[in-house]
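Researcher: Please generate the 3D structure of the following complex. Treat every line as part of one assembly.
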Amino acid sequence: MSQSGVPHVVVIGFGPVASRLIEELMPEIQAESLRLTVIGSEDRAAYQRIRIGDVSVGRVEPEELAMDEVASLQAAGVEVLLGVEVTAVDTVAHTVTLAEKTLTYTKLVLATGAEPILPNMSVELRRDGHIDYELKPTGYPNGVIALRDMEDALRIRRALEKREPVVVLGGGVLGVEAALAVAEVGIPVTLLHRGNVPMGRQIDTEAGMLLRRELMRAGVDIRSACDLTTVVSEDGELTAVRTSLGEKLPASLLVTCTGVKPRDELASAAGLPVKWGIVTGRDARSTGTQEGHGDVFAVGDCAAVDGRDPSGLIAPGWLQAEAAATSLRQDLGLVPEAELDAAGTPVEFEAGAGFAPAPGGLDVVLMKSKTLNVACAGDTSHDPWDIDPWDPAAPTVSTWSDPKHGQYLRIVTEPVSAGDDAAGERLLGFVSVGMPRSAAELAMHATRGTIPVADRTALLAAEHATKEAELGPEDVLCRCAGTTAGMVQEAAETCCRTVEEVSAETRAGTGCGTCHKNIEKILATTGAPGEVKV
Amino acid sequence: MTTTPAADHTAERGSTRTVTTHCPYCALQCAMNLTVRETPGQETGFEVEGAAFPTNRGRLCRKGNTAAELLKNRGDRITAPLIRSRNAAGQRTGAFEETTWSHVLDHIVQRVRQIQQERGPDAIGVFGSGGLTNEKTYSLGKFARVGLGTSQIDYNGRFCMSSASKASTLVFGLDRGMPFPLTDLDGACTILLLGSNVADTMPPFVQHLEGARDKGGLIVVDPRRSNTAELTADGAGLHVAPAPGGDLVLLLSVANVIIEEGFADEDYLTQRVNGVAEFRRSVSHWWPERAQAATGVGADQIRSVARKLGHAARAARHGGDPVYILTGRGVEQHRDGTDTARAAISLALLLGLPGVSTEGRPRGGYGTLTGQGNGQGGREMGQKSDQLPGIRMIAKPGDRAHMAQVWGVEETSIPGPGKPATQLLHTMGTVDEQGVPKGVSALLVHGSNIAISAPDAGRVIENLRALDLLVVADFFLSETAEEADVVLPVLQWAEEDGTMTNLEGRVLRRRKAVEPPPGPRSELWIWSELARRLGSPAQFPVDPREVFEEIRDATRGAAADYSGLDWDLIDAGHAPYWPVPSSTLSGEESLTGEPVVGTSRMFQERFAHADGRAQLSAIRPRRQATPQAGELTFTTGRVMEHYQSGTQTRRVQALQDTHPEAVLQVHPATANQYGLVEGSYAVVENAQGAMVGVVELDDGIRADTIFAPFHFQGSGTANLLIRGLTDPHSSMPEFKNTPAVIRPAVQGEIPTDQTPEGRQKEGAQT
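Model: Done. Output below.
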């Protein structure tokens, strides 16, 4: 207990998972039944880290991703320390050492996240157009950036302003998202990755083939089964990269998405069990058995729940934050107000309402892109023709593949209990490319731990039922003025750059305004790439 | 008694007279001409036809067209007070016997006194209705607080409008379902309609969607391709089908896109709205890809809805056609219904729509589609557990003082807030572990059939049977009345005078067209007599006009201010929009050219909070009950032919013939998986209960969803499956999102005959 007698919870790290934890404990903080200090190494309060790619291409401003506001947290009674590094934790003395002071805690939560793993690349130093053998490399040149925090995103954004070629290294979901986002704003980009297909660890090969094709169609140049060997530095600035295929690609920006490593050094130094992440139970508590270990919790990308590698996804992190909050309340004897039904009986709800996976649910990867819809979860690597049809425990693989139209769907299920049909099936995994309705349905089922209807064609039917038709040139685009899509197209090609200009030229969009979206679409697809705003 | 309708609205030709009044059913309150033919020695004949009024423009739905069926001389009308005895075990086993009014009123008073002496005034509960006239709903609240001295009053509107009402109050500062004339929708280019199947529930409303349909701008959100969702076909708009329970996240995600793609009206937000930053931060959680997993709606469709709204709203700011966001019970009848309605309002504010006109043209706004006939007046006249007339708050000293003065009682004698409806019904007649009663021991029910319409109907019936006294006032022997100790016959719509407030806040005249059969009495008379016998200090007028005048006093200066209303003006055919603080004619003209009385478009200068600004705040979805492996989601609603618990419509032959019993609507693929055959019976069940219905296949419903109408009785009662989970802000029950399993019915579960007549026959045989 701290001096005031009110328990003091110290949270190290102020990312989205820490933010969720604070939100969860807010009633207790406001009731002054616990004190909370949060220590962030960045200069800003928690933000939606998962979305910083959108900041880097200028789609959103940093403040739009803010999850907390320091002033309101302070007003609620939270102590917020920003831009502060923690140098040591003493689990016996229950202290946290900062540069200028030492804090005493009752309970400690480590939410230190993860840091990018930089690839091992050699540096080719050039000066005045020639290799300079005299210079000794002092690190990677400017323009090599691992996208992890808001500062990285802002640096990438500044680099993109030059609109010079970009290389993205890494074929995981982050690399694919980054490359796609750059392509979507019309800047030349090449994705280098080591596998045969992008996202090869998450999706089956056939899906990966289609994904590669779709990425190329979206304007991403791809080098598969390829590594980056060398970065070329000219006067300290990145100018090109060399690949294992012997190719030299010009680039002023290299974004590396080659994995992350849990930030567990503080825990490790404090003697807490660490194994690619701080090892915790499902209650978020450290599994350490030494004095004081039971008062330490870890959540998010730095935590290895039950010793498993952190998933890197946000939904499980938020679930851990809830688990930690529950543990803390129990430890501190704080009983949250239970929800009662109308007769006064307490009710509880399972996870799985799209917030975090239910027991039996799967972590879902939902790729963020405005042009390409990809979602996946679990394992879809099964070969449908390699399954014994007489094995009652064998999985079922359903695949829809239509590469020409950019669609691919695979659903893998297995019997809950071999030989007992009544027990039903469970979802082992799915992947969906270019099928947004199916992606949404399956993402929901995967999160809830349920499965879609046995006849999978019901999903396919939903796919077309709500698809918006593309307008042909003779189709009326603006019902109010009778303007056709072709007339708008012509205006866009000849003279008009904005909806207002199109309206002035063709009268389209001057009535109800509902066709503005379609006018913008035509403007966007006919516009020269260089003119799209970053 | 004011029983003579105004001359202008009654045309007499010999033995035939035509009275212009409004429909007995829903909140659209379609105007109708009711023609009565009285020929000596013959049955009185009735004819109904639609009359001119802006909401229905002469149209009626099938329910309205057949409304007069129930005015006929029928065998099932209750024509005398009924009473029955109990056996030694206290069960109501005796048959109903007809008795006199004086005996039955004395009996009720004697039992009420006895129970209150034993357990105190709060041992008596009162349950009201959004179907009662303004005068009755006002008098019922007064009767409970002053006549009975109990705090335990609530009404069936708790199951209907409570979430939207709470949300409007929180954000706008005041709740009038549609704060603009319904006809404003006609000019809209884009209408986002969430959780409302108007094509079935209020068909004449659909004509107001035509403008948006013509412009391709009708967006319907419903887990089923309902008849309303069908209206979006062929380029008329977009149907979005989230999983039940996904509405809130869907709205937050649309808001997320609106903000991030720059569609928010920043000037408007700065000038007129508080709490924007807090709301934005909470919305940042729901980018479209993430929202997919909570809604089942694709990210592309979420963006598409947002952009449609965003572009249309941007155009509306520059003089384009207005944009509206409307919600119905489908999104409001949830444990998070208030937050969902709040999200819909917040979206409208982000787009800069409510309470602005550009050169006299409205920009758009938010409205909720009130359900019951007097669902609007019913929620503002003081039958809510926490409110006094005029939406005054029962816990607020100033409001209490005003009402004490109007009622002529001591302020301290007015009780505090009571339990909301579900809590009232789920605790009545029960005791805790120590044997202490958890709720009321007696219940007086007016205009409501809770044995069908309340959540966990099985528990409700069980609790009704455990009450020491159950009094039900109705015109037919409803399923709730069948449980009663005492049934009081009352008047139907065309047998009484009064006022109703429709879904746009217009006060309408309900006119008496026929003499009631001998026996039934007005509730106003019943409460007056009961109050007198109970020795009430306050007077209870029996003339609706006198009560109307009292309402004017009671609401003077209140949020829902009726004080400027004039009975003669309403009687002459004007339908004023409240608030009507003082003057009568506003000088304004409606789009259809009629003079406007009262406030047609609200919030034009300011919202109703003290600082005149709307109040946004963070919205964080909470966990909810989601289906586990093997379960589907059960959701409920209405069909065209029936109204609410079916007490009336199940007795209209034409309607009953078309839709005689409960159906279970499922996707063909789902039926295939669970072995269900179209036209045969299936059972949906969960821990609360089970219902039986006929399987109906529809490839427009989500494959993970089962839909059932809630109009039916016995094993066809949908609300048997509904848990008593309620919204923490509004106490709205979770009607629309219930995990359950489905299977074919087996022998013994298949109902022999579900019609009331059939059941009567069965009863006669046993």
